[in-house]
Design a protein that fits this description.
heterodimer; A: about 190 residues; mainly alpha; 4 helices; about 0% strand; B: alpha+beta; about 20% strand; elongated; Ribosomal_mL40 (chain A)
């Protein structure tokens, strides 16, 4: 092979270095995305343009005036139903909070010890008695299709609590909390 | 064979509009051929079509209830809506009883409680009727009874979502707010008509059109009658001495009784008669601003108006609260000259820029020799 060092360039080393540094290294135009000279054979651009400009608009259902009115009425009625449900829930919660507040005020009058212990609360994590523990398999008694929650009518007589097999000797409270619902598989199930 | 007119499926409503707005006085009754379709009564046609309009009298629209039994979802929806309506009216009855139980005295606490109850009652009255398809149809077709809370609510809501933002945009863009009024928070929809056509705020008008005062419509949303003041002001009249602009009064009416059901400006005291807009030649466009103020101090006794007074001074003097505003723009036209001559009877001013001084020419206009050009200050 020829000896590389025997070849001499017209430019000196220092000038060649200078030139190399000043020439800006630019990407070939076909590589810059979005440019008009972009690689036309790349189908991604075609696909993107098609999606942007040529997808058909979704066809709206053609409704007469009467149809539209029917649709709007049904829509409003459904939304009203949901709104009423939500309001009922909110009112229940508000009532519960009020009762809680009143109970605390009453407790304050009774004495400092009970009141303070009630305010501090429990550091011990406790679960409600009726909470359903997740199980591997469904219950043996199956699904109770006739289950009905307690009615939220306060004027009706308060329903008795389901009997607790462990502590049957304890006296039942006279006014149960509204949301204390009987277990689905309870033999003493209460239907409203 | 009779020459039959081109048969197109024209819905009944369009036919009626043709009758109402385009009276064709040039129908040649000799050549008009009576087609069989024309002899059928209109009512039959309406029943055949899907329209909701009954036209016993031409032009009067009335809501036609959708028949039940076709769509079970619709039947259930109507049932639920009517049930909810009954519930709401029950609640309104309870609130009425509560209001009646209040004692006659009116101290601050009782006023507050009554206010809360009234607001709740208004809300219930709106909620009871707002889902009724008849009410919605009526509002859509502009058959509005402002004495009912529903329609007031719907109208206010519609105004606040559409026309109001547009008005505020135009008022701020055209600097009506800092120039004429310090601030504007409208609670009333002030509209004006020239030649029976509503004008959008900020549009240019021809001076001939505005020689006669516009028909003003003050859409307020309160039931009780309050007294309002209407003003029309031009803030863009040139003031040569101060090299600035001055305000010109065009119209002033006080003590106008306005409520939700009364929307015109009758019953007021016209203190300053309407002066037609007259933008002078050489000035840029003028903004003719209308303002509706609520009189917080009751009736205003005023015989004459000091035309040199500013709008802000006037407002402060009489304790007025700005409730609604709008404006239109005008520019000089040949007709303005005739307004100056006929209506105003004053000499028409023509404004222009002061002449530019060319320092390279001397007084006679000849080129000044360079050695005599002074250094320009």
């Amino acid at each position: 092979m020829s000896n590389h060092f025997s070849y001499r360039s017209a430019l000196s080393t220092s000038i060649r270095g200078l030139l190399a540094r000043t020439v800006k290294k630019s990407k070939p135009k076909s590589e810059i995305p979005g440019s008009q000279n972009a690689n036309i054979t790349d189908t991604r651009y075609q696909i993107i343009k098609r999606i942007l400009y040529e997808t058909p608009k979704p066809e709206l259902p053609k409704m007469t005036e009467q149809d539209l009115e029917r649709h709007e009425t049904i829509d409003r009625a459904w939304k009203l139903f949901l709104r009423n449900q939500q309001e009922e829930r909110e009112n229940e919660l508000a009532a519960k909070y009020r009762k809680l507040n009143e109970a605390n005020l009453e407790l304050e009058k009774l004495g400092p010890r009970l009141f303070n212990s009630a305010q501090i609360g429990n550091k011990i994590m406790m679960f409600p008695r009726q909470m359903k523990i997740p199980t591997e398999t469904p219950p043996l008694n199956g699904w109770n299709y006739d289950y009905k929650p307690l009615s939220s009518d306060p004027t009706k007589n308060s329903k008795p609590l389901p009997s607790d097999p462990i502590k049957d000797s304890e006296p039942l409270p006279s006014n149960p909390i509204k949301d204390f619902e009987p277990l689905p598989s309870d033999p003493n199930k209460v239907s409203s | 064979m009779l020459l039959q007119p081109a048969k197109r499926a024209i819905p009944a409503t369009v036919r009626i509009i043709q009758f109402r707005t385009l009276p064709n006085f040039f129908i040649n009754f000799r050549t008009l051929k009576i087609d069989e379709s024309m002899t059928k009564p209109l009512a039959e046609e309406v029943i055949q079509s899907n329209d909701l309009v009954t036209e016993k009298e031409i032009g009067v629209k009335k809501y036609k209830t959708i028949p039940l039994g076709i769509n079970p979802a619709y039947d259930e929806a109507i049932k639920y809506i009517l049930q909810d309506k009954a519930n709401k009216y029950q609640q309104i009855k309870q609130i009425d009883e509560q209001i009646n139980n209040f004692s006659e005295e009116r101290n601050d606490e009782i006023i507050k409680e009554l206010d809360v109850l009234q607001k709740r009652k208004y809300l219930l009255q709106v909620q009871a009727e707002v889902n009724d398809p008849e009410v919605r149809w009526n509002f859509k077709n502009d058959i509005v009874d402002m004495s009912k809370p529903v329609y007031r609510h719907l109208k206010e809501k519609h105004w606040k979502s559409g026309p109001l933002p547009k008005l505020m945009e135009r008022i701020t863009q055209m600097y009506v707010v800092p120039d004429v009024f310090p601030d504007l928070e409208p609670t009333m929809c002030l509209e004006f008509k020239f030649d029976d056509e509503f004008v959008e705020p900020g549009c240019f008008q021809r001076p001939i059109r505005t020689i006669n005062p516009p028909t003003i419509v003050m859409n307020s949303f309160h039931v009780e009658t309050r007294l309002y003041t209407l003003i029309m002001v031009d803030p863009d009249m040139p003031d040569i001495e101060n090299k600035s602009f001055q305000m010109q009064w065009h119209w002033l009416i006080t003590n106008i009784p306005i409520s939700a059901t009364k929307i015109d400006i009758s019953g007021g005291n016209e203190i300053l008669k309407y002066v037609p807009p007259h933008p002078p030649k050489g000035t840029k466009y003028h903004r003719y601003t209308l303002g509706a103020f609520e009189q917080s101090n009751g009736k205003i006794e005023m015989s004459k108006m000091d035309l040199k007074m500013n709008v802000r001074e006037f407002v402060n003097q009489h304790n007025l609260i700005l409730r609604g505003a709008t404006f239109f723009r005008e520019v000089w036209d040949k007709d303005v000259s005739s307004i100056y001559k006929n209506q105003l009877g004053i000499h028409e001013p023509i404004y222009g820029k002061p002449p530019k001084i060319d320092h390279y020419l001397d007084e006679t206009g000849k080129k000044r020799p360079s050695k005599f050009i002074e250094t320009l200050e």
